[in-house]
Amino acid sequence: MALSDKLTAKLNEQITNEFNASQIYLAMACMFDNMALKMLSRWFRLQADEERGHALKIIDYLLSRHAKVEIGSVPKPSPEYPSVVAAVEAAYEHEQKVTRQFDDLMAQAEKDDDYASQNFLGWFVDEQVEEEESTRHLLEVARMAGTHYLQLEAYVAHLRRSEG
Ligand code: FEO
Question: What is the pLDDT of residues 131-154, one digit of tens each?
Answer without folding.
Answer: 999 999 999 999 999 999 999 999
